[in-house]
Write a sequence for this structure.
C-alpha cells in the first residue's frame, strides 16, 4: 500500500467561549490508500479534512496512532525526504521568487540535483515559452499548474491536494482536475484530494473517505459511493443536507 493510517487521532486546543478546551478533531481514523489510487476526502466544513491531509506530510502530527508510507512510519522519517515523497499543492498558488523555471527547479536545486523544467511544463500542459517569465506574470490557473509542476519535479510518490481549484474559474478548475486525473494514470501517482465539489471527486476519485466531526463515517470505492452510499449519513451528505453537527 502507499499510505496507511492506523487509528489516527488528533487533539487541538480550541477556543470555546473564553476558555481553551482540548477537542479531538480527528477520531480514530484508519484507512488505506493503495498505490496509484485517488482518494477523495470529503465532508462538511470543519470535519477535519485539512487536518488529516496536513498530518500526511507532518505539517501536523497525530496525538495518537500512526501513519505509514510504503510500510514505514512517517514519524521516523527525515521530514525533508518525507515532504519530497509526499508533495502538497495548496488551495491558492504559492509562488517563489523568480521565473517559472526557477520555481519548478527549486526542490531539485536545493538537493543539488539536475532538473529539466521543460519536461514538467509539458506534463502540466503549459507552453514552453513560459519558462523564462516571472511566475507572478502567469494567470492564476497557470500558476496553479506551475505549482503542480514544481511538486512533480520532486518526483513524489503521493500528491496531496487541499481544494486545489477553489481559487480558479470553472474552466481552469476543470483543466486542473483533468490534469490531476491524467497525472494519476500516466505516472501511477497516488493522489489524496480534499474537495467540496462532488463533480470533481466523481471525475477522478477511485476511493472516497467521508469525514464528519473527525470520524471516518464511510469509505469505499468511489463509483459505489456515488451510486448509492452505504450509510444514511453518506446519503444525507450527497443530498447536501449534512452539516458538521450531524453524527
Ligand atoms: N490551528 C487550529 N487550532 C485550533 N483548532 C483548529 C485549528 N485548525 C483547525 N481547527 C479546528 O479543527 C477542526 C477541523 O478543521 P479542518 O480545518 O481540518 O476542517 P476542514 O474539514 O478542512 O474544513 P473546511 O472544509 O472548512 O476547510 C475544526 O473544528 C477547526 O475549527
Ligand atoms: Mg479545509
Amino acid at each position: 500500500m502507499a499510505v496507511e493510517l492506523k487509528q489516527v487521532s488528533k487533539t487541538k486546543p480550541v477556543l470555546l467561549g473564553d476558555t481553551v478546551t482540548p477537542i479531538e478533531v480527528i477520531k480514530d481514523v484508519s484507512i488505506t490508500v493503495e498505490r496509484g489510487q485517488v482518494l477523495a476526502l470529503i465532508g462538511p466544513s470543519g470535519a477535519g479534512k485539512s487536518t488529516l491531509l496536513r498530518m500526511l506530510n507532518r505539517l501536523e502530527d497525530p496525538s495518537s496512532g500512526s501513519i505509514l508510507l510504503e510500510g514505514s512510519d512517517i514519524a521516523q522519517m527525515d521530514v525533508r525526504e518525507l515532504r519530497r515523497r509526499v508533495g502538497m499543492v495548496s488551495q491558492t498558488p504559492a509562488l517563489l521568487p523568480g521565473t517559472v523555471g526557477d520555481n519548478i527547479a527549486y526542490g531539485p536545486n536545493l538537493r543539488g540535483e539536475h532538473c529539466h523544467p521543460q519536461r514538467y511544463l509539458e506534463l502540466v500542459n503549459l507552453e514552453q515559452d513560459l519558462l523564462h517569465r516571472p511566475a507572478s506574470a502567469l494567470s492564476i490557473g497557470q500558476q496553479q499548474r506551475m505549482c503542480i509542476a514544481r511538486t512533480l519535479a520532486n518526483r513524489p510518490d503521493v500528491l496531496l491536494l487541499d481544494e486545489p481549484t477553489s481559487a480558479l474559474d470553472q474552466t481552469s478548475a476543470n483543466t486542473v482536475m483533468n490534469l490531476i486525473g491524467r497525472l494519476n494514470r500516466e505516472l501511477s501517482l497516488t493522489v489524496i484530494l480534499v474537495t467540496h465539489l462532488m463533480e470533481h471527486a466523481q471525475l477522478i476519485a477511485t476511493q472516497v473517505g467521508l469525514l464528519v466531526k473527525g470520524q471516518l463515517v464511510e469509505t469505499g470505492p468511489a463509483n459505489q459511493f456515488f451510486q448509492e452510499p452505504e450509510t444514511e449519513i453518506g446519503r444525507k451528505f450527497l443530498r447536501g443536507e449534512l452539516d458538521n453537527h450531524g453524527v
User: Anything to note?
Assistant: The longest strand covers residues 19-33. The chain has one domain: 3-93+157-238. Residues 205 and 221 are 8 Å apart (CA to CA).
